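Hey, quick one: can you model this chain's 3D structure?
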Amino acid sequence: MSVGSVEHAAAAMRAGKPVLIANGREIVMAYAVETLAEKTLAGLRKSKPSLVLTHARARTLKIRLYTPDVVALPIGAKDTADALRAITDPTADLSAPLKGPFEAQRTKLPDGFSAAVNLAKLAGLLPAVVASRIAAAPKNVAKIKLTDILSYEDEAAKTLAIVTRARVPLEDAEKTELVAFRSAGGGPEHYAIVINSPSP
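Sure thing. Here's the predicted structure for all 200 residues.
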């Protein structure tokens, strides 16, 4: 498993580019909703894409949960990229309060839908994607195995190394250190607050 391949795919999502997620013969093409361009959405309509949300967001929007892990909503002909962002972004709930009603898909979803949402989270984006099944993988598009996304956190944790550490005395714990870690493939930093001298 390549931690770097997941980081590459996450960077593609942040840049508004597609990512192909392969699970055996099944291929899902996904875009992060947060960086999705209107022109891109227009080009995707032929593939009948779905808006894929977490269960937590679906519950907030009063969407019934028929499928495990994530919920998929069909994207209508009049839906815009901004409208999709308003659905997925909790900070837009006050400025765009009237959403729905929504009818979630009840049939089994590709495993790549859930993995794509996980990848959006790893990219530091809203955990929502526009995704669809495709028959063949186009060239020059970031491609990743579903298993790489699912095992990313465990694999990245194995390569964590200390980047820096500093003493940060606290009021009730003067012997305190802040330690920053980073995985070999890059990605977000992780922090530990070490009080006194705990056993490793």
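One thing worth noting: The chain has a mean pLDDT of 90.
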